[in-house]
């Protein structure tokens, strides 16, 4: 079956030999496409549902795989229009991302070993980050660490691996005017994406047996985990 198994080929974006200038061009292209596809929508929809609007008035949030901080900027602006104050810490493995992020709370490191104390943030988020990890063990460690440092909720989102989404994204990217390398990475991101059952196995292995997992619109796989009130 087409796309039954994940691709293992690394994305061009993840090549450590890429220059800061190349990465800057990639982040700029990614921001344009992310705005086009409303990549922040799952977080705008689900955080208020999971936490309640009263709790959302002030939140500390950790964005894993934040890149240059686009999710922070868009969600902070959106929260501000509602009179809410969302304070982000951005976290990314790539050292070249930090200088491009206007948020001074930008930490460099691996999502498999977070340098934060238990329950440091109200909410821990990640958008299209997990498919960059090297193997299943790293994904399980990522899930476990995200839950460890979350005081209230973990909300993770990534590509849903299916042929219809692959075809739709390929068509969209042909009209964006972005580079050949960027378009190839976009298609590879879907091929490296996930199925709900795969994430469910990882969540159980990470100890998140009460996590909710689902897919939306054939394009995204989501995981939501709320810390039990007695912990």
How would you describe the overall organization of this protein?
The protein has one domain (about 25-180, about 190-225): 3-Layer(aba) Sandwich (Rossmann fold). About 40% of the residues lie in helices and about 20% in strands. It contains 7 helices and 7 strands, in the order H-H-E-H-E-E-E-H-E-H-H-H-E-E. Strands 3-2-1-4-5-7-6 form a 7-stranded mixed beta sheet, sandwiched between helices. Helix 5 runs antiparallel to helix 6 (about 180-190). The N and C termini lie far apart (about 45 Å).
Short characterization:
The chain is α/β, with parallel strands linked by helices.
Radius of gyration from the alpha-carbon trace, in angstroms:
17 Å
The whole-number mean of residue pLDDT values reads: 93
Shape: globular
CATH architectural type: 3-Layer(aba) Sandwich
- The DSSP helix count reads 7
Structural class: alpha/beta
List the uncertain runs: none
Listing every helix as H and every strand as E from the N terminus to the C terminus, the arrangement reads HHEHEEEHEHHHEE
> Which sequence of strands runs across the widest sheet?
3-2-1-4-5-7-6
Helices and strands in order:
Layout: H1 20-37, H2 41-51, E1 58-64, H3 70-81, E2 85-92, E3 106-108, E4 121-127, H4 136-149, E5 150-159, H5 163-174, H6 180-191, H7 196-205, E6 212-216, E7 220-226
Parallel strand pairs: 1-2, 1-4, 2-3, 4-5
Antiparallel strand pairs: 5-7, 6-7
Notable characteristics:
about 40% helix, 7 strands, Rossmann fold, 7 helices, alpha/beta, single chain, 7-stranded mixed sheet, about 230 residues
